[in-house]
Amino acid sequence: MPLEPQQFPAATVPTRFIGGRITTEDPAQPEADALVTDATGRIAWIGCANKLPAAFAGDAYEEVDLGGARVIPGFVDAHMHAVMLANFAPQISVLPPNIASIAELTEAIRARRAAQGPNAWVEGWGYDEALLAEHRSPTRWDLDAGSPDAPVCIMRTCGHIRCVNSRALEIAGITRDTPDPVGGEIERDATGEPTGVLKETARDLVTPFIPKPSEHDAVQHIVDLGRLLASQGIVAATDMCSVDGTDTHPLLLAAARAGFKQDVATYMLWDYIKQNPDAYELGPEQMDRSQQIFAAGIKILTDGSVSGRTAWFYDPFLPSERDLGATNCGMPTCTDDDIDHAIAFCQNHGCQLSLHAMGTHAIDRVIDRVIAAGLWDANGVPPVRIEHVTAPSPHAISAMAANGIVVVTQPIFPYAEIGTYLTNLGEERTRRCYPFRTLVDAGVDVCISTDAPATSWAVPSDPFPNIKSAVTRQAYNHFDFDAAEALSVEEALARYTREPARILGFEGLGMLKAGYKASFAVLDRDILAIPADEIDRVQVAATYICGEKVFER
Questions:
Q1: Can you give the three-state secondary structure of 491-551, one letter per residue?
Q2: How far apart are the first and last CA of the chain?
Q3: Within a 10 A sphere around the Cβ of 50, how many other Cβ atoms?
Q4: Last residue of a domain, one of 144, 175, 209
Q5: Which residue among 130, 303, 315, 337 is least packed, with the fewest CB closer than 10 Å?
């Protein structure tokens, strides 16, 4: 069905901003100290105030003195699950300092069960065994202690693993005799009994039974999320897919009509398209990048996560008692045919293909299959982006550079999940992960993003710990994961603003230049002048989207 027409930004008051230290990300004019916006919310002029044209100097323009503050283009989060993050807000957050142990999780479940009653699902998100006092994953029996009768589902931080209780297993019909689905694993104890931990595609066995929020509530959650993103200087984001893979485009359109301000590029999960080939429209109207909400392409999951021990490597993870003695190199979560059919779909529709690939084996596989199939015209943006790219081989790096294949990576992963990385990979392999400097120097297009909410951080969409990680190559606990692979602050900012806007095709974003949208963030301290280990303390003082102040601290 056709999409409803989208509303362009309302008229704004023409404004003259002076006295700023403006990083424009425009290579032709990297710095400025003044900019002028027009009634459409676009930048009419930007430069040095002493060269301000007379046409912009009169009383027709309001004037804002930036007081010497550092101004940057608004952040563009190239890999976020916006709707998922919005819907997680009412759930139990299984992250320190809220919850730091399985015992505390059990108590939180017990309290939520008492408040909701016996028939409502108890949901939570964000657990990471490395951050729990017991240093292990919860199991069905831990969740049963908090709720023996109501179903419980707790999503791991990576988003690839769920832990459910016995009642949820019963509702989903999962028993010791249930076979593992293709690309997934029902974790079992030494006796063959399901532990409640469902990995990769196995997590989808319970998805149909978990109630969705009403459309009204889902829209309100997105509007609320927009306020949080504005407070972080984020002016554009992505919805890389929902929990169940269904199309979130209509919800985001409804949220935009209800006051959500950010631009969003949406991606549909390939598994859903494969099962519902006629349910997803992807034509010129949906992919029109002049709209606030537009469809960018599709996403396919080709392996799992490092922290969940399901990313697909050639070399095995370090031994774990949960592997029950088996050698574990992770797993592919789709077939070669799935990748080939997803490529063909994108070729036929002229859209972008996003491939989740973390392990070295998974990365090599997707690159080789893409190159064998041949690249395509994706309406002015790079046709292929690979997500995460934790441990690329030299072959993969050179192939990505030679073919214009984009890397969308997350410095926040090793920063926040360092304990799990060290446990699963060891120090040497961990230091080889996320080779930002090597990728950039090889000529690979790189974007920085958060993958919120799929990371173990209290406020997963916060850009500043992410930038700090890219610049310092130190985890939150000061573990050094190879400073030789660090980016400069300037490089990190470009890969969080200009580059993702270009690669995703966000019209008028990523740079501050005449004709572009007046979408920018005013910082409370100069991120280019402070010590690198203080970057995570930076806060946004104000955010403007299309000339409108949408946040002020």
A1: HHHHCCCHHHHHHHCCCCCCCCCCCCECCEEEECCCCCCCCHHHHHHCCEEEEEECCEEEE
A2: 41
A3: 7
A4: 209
A5: 337
Contacts of 167 (CB under 8 A, 6+ apart): 144, 147, 148, 149, 150, 151, 152
Cis peptide before 453 (omega within 30 of 0): yes
Q: Of 184, 209, 234, which marks where a domain is finished?
A: 209
Q: Would residue 409 count as lying in a domain?
A: yes
Asked, for residue 59, whether it belongs to a domain, the answer is no
Q: What is the pLDDT of residue 324?
A: 58
Per the listing, tokens 């966000």 go with 506
C-alpha pair distances (Å), 207 with each of 154, 243, 252, 335, 545: 12, 8, 21, 22, 36
DSSP string, 378-396: BTTB-SEEEEE--S--HHH
For residue 332, give both structure tokens: 């592919």
The set of residues, in sequence order, having a beta carbon less than 8 Å from that of 491 and lying 6+ positions away, is 440
Distance CA 230, CA 108 (A): 30
The Cβ-side half-sphere exposure at 96, using a 13 Å CA radius, reads: 10
Question: Does residue 469 contact residue 412 with C-beta atoms inside 8 Å?
Answer: yes
In this structure, how many other beta carbons lie within 10 angstroms of the beta carbon of residue 189?
14
Beta bridge partners of 387: 356, 408
Whole-angstrom CA distances from 211 to 118, 119, 206, 227, 244 are 14, 11, 11, 26, 11
Q: Which two tokens stand for residue 10?
A: 């309302």
Range of the domain at 434: 215-543
Model pLDDT for residues 363-374, shown as the tens digit of each residue: 999 999 999 999
Residues of the chain with pLDDT under 70: 1-11, 279, 321-325
**Residue 257 and residue 177 in one domain:** no
Contact 549, 237 (CB under 8 A): no
Q: Which residues pair with 26 in a beta bridge?
A: none
pTM, full prediction:
0.91
Give the CA distances from residue 454 to residues 357, 402, 404, 458, in Å, rounded to whole numbers and listed in that order: 15, 30, 27, 11
Number of neighbours of residue 5 by Cβ within 10 angstroms: 9
Q: Which of 101, 141, 146 is nearest to 123 (CA)?
A: 146
Q: Which residues are within 8 A (CB) of 409 and not within 5 positions of it... i.e. 6 or more apart?
A: 387, 388, 389, 434, 436, 439, 446, 447, 448, 449
Q: Same structural domain for residues 141 and 236?
A: no
Tell me, yes or no, whether 197 and 253 share the same domain: no
Cβ proximity of 77 and 265 under 8 Å: no
Strands 406-409 and 384-388: parallel
Query: What was the pLDDT predicted at 1?
Result: 32
**Is residue 268 within 8 Å of 277, Cβ to Cβ?**
no
Position 213 scores a pLDDT of 87
The secondary structure of residue 8, as a DSSP letter, is P
pLDDT computed for residue 321 by the predictor: 65
Do 146 and 257 share a domain, yes or no?
Answer: no
Count, residues in the chain: 553
311 within 8 A of 330, measured Cβ to Cβ: yes
